[in-house]
Amino acid sequence: MSVSGKGVVLAAGCVLWRRGPYDGEVEVCLVHRPRYDDFSFPKGKLKRGEDALAGALREVLEETGFHCVPGARLPTVRYVVGGRPKEVAYWAAEAAAGSFAPNAEVDRLLWLPPGAATNRLTQRRDRPLIPALLSSLRPA
Hints:
Layout: E1 9-19, E2 26-33, E3 38-40, E4 43-45, H1 52-64, E5 66-81, E6 84-98, E7 108-112, H2 114-120, H3 129-137
Parallel strand pairs: 1-6
Antiparallel strand pairs: 1-2, 1-4, 2-3, 2-7, 5-6
């Protein structure tokens, strides 16, 4: 378990996105974790000494089967779980090669338009990441 000196559980993940195959519009990836019966972004705890971005990319590959191209840093999500503070660093990441295969940790993967993804997220604290993703994709 990766923990900083203050006892904060450190984790990382990505708001994985792609251009829809039919209309070219942005679609956001959500994973379903049967252990928690929730829909969330791919994420997980960092390994000891692991760089946050490297951990985020590792978690995306493990949970979704997709390699990805990291983009903008998104807001960090902070909350308490099991009485301990947790910080999840997020990046926008475009899906590249790969394919999903259900496993013990993630049994379903959904590609949804941003509005539908926002509504499907189990934790309200994750919802601001979708507008942050969309802002990061707009040309400056």
